[in-house]
Specification:
The chain is α/β, with parallel strands linked by helices and about 270 residues long. The chain has a single domain, classed as Rossmann fold (3-Layer(aba) Sandwich). The protein is about 40% helix and about 20% strand. The protein contains ten helices and nine strands. Strands 1, 2, 3, 4, 5, 6, 7, 8 and 9 form a nine-stranded mixed beta sheet that branches. Helix 3 links the parallel strand 1 and strand 2. Bound molecules: S-adenosylmethionine. The site of S-adenosylmethionine has 23 residues, from helix 1 and helix 3.
Length: about 270
């Protein structure tokens, strides 16, 4: 483990030039399902506003923007300069930085959100370091929330897109199921780690966090939303019955831990 962590060049290139993260949560129905559910799950856990929120790997600030509108003081840290510039435009403070070496003082935030860095840290040591940093900067009793991509998400995704039948995608998905790892250059995504719910929970507990609960963000119906949007000839409105049913399914699934495996993203909430 190096003293100064370096973000992998493929991550910086993916978010810096290849992919538009600013529209990911608003431009597609499964993205909107992730946004709506992440927001409602966090609102259940957050302390009352105003409070200090550190948004680690906050990207272009989609969550930071609604948190600021809710009355929170939000500071965003992200390694991609394009994201930091966009976040500054969303009305929060922001700086370039790495989840493994946060440029902020000990116990200086009521809430640390880590919604993205764990996706792109393939080595356990790096994820441990990011969670240790989230714990370090959070005040005693404060909230740490960490998101992960679900281990089985790519099976559902590429069934919906129908790309799973192609050899290149099939083999990349097979390897994700076996190892959790997606090496860059194999299918249309950058380097990524796909967590099981138990694995995510264990990583937060091992970081010294307590009261850990894991939620399935999009629930078990997001693949149908994606399939209908992809093959149904256009964007799916928020009041489309398939979207509404998937949102209902996600809420019902909160009481059914077995269904965590079907979610695209997992959200772990815990206390320092
Ligand atoms: C899928 S985006 C998520 C953005 C936003 N938090 C959200 O939930 O919509 C993943 C984010 O993690 C950031 N990221 C990747 N590696 C990171 C690291 N080592 N430290 C901090 N952020 C990182 C990326 O720059 C990107 O903004």
């Amino acid at each position: 483990m190096s003293a100064t962590p370096q973000v992998a060049p493929e991550i910086l290139q993916f978010y810096g030039t290849d992919f538009d993260e600013a529209t990911r949560l608003t431009g597609t129905a499964d993205g909107r399902l992730e946004l709506v559910r992440t927001r409602e799950l966090l609102r259940r856990q957050l302390p009352g506003a105003p409070a200090d929120v550190l948004d680690v790997g906050g990207g272009p600030g989609v969550h930071a923007a609604w948190l600021a509108r809710d009355g929170y003081r939000v500071h965003l840290v992200d390694p991609v300069p394009r994201h930091v510039e966009a976040a500054l435009g969303a009305g929060v403070t922001a700086e370039v930085g790495d989840a493994r070496a946060l440029p902020v003082a000990d116990a200086s935030y009521d809430v640390a959100l880590v919604l993205g860095p764990l996706y792109h840290l393939l080595e356990r040591d790096d994820r441990d370091r990011a969670l240790a940093e989230a714990r370090r900067v959070t005040r005693p009793g404060g909230l740490v929330a960490a998101a992960a991509i679900g281990r089985y998400a790519s099976v559902f995704e590429h069934t919906a897109t129908t790309l799973l039948a192609r050899d290149r995608v099939h083999d990349a998905v097979r390897d994700i199921l076996a190892t959790g790892r997606h090496e860059p250059g194999r299918k249309g995504f950058t380097a990524a780690y796909f967590h099981t719910a138990a694995g995510l929970e264990g990583e937060l507990r091992d970081a010294g966090l307590g009261d850990v609960t894991v939620y399935g963000v999009e629930g078990p119906g997001w693949g149908q939303v994606k399939a209908v949007e992809q093959h149904g000839g256009g964007p799916l409105a928020a009041d489309h019955p398939v979207f509404e049913a998937a949102l209902c399914a996600a809420r019902l699934a909160d009481g059914c831990p077995e269904l965590l495996a079907a979610a695209s993203h997992l959200l772990a909430v815990a206390r320092r």
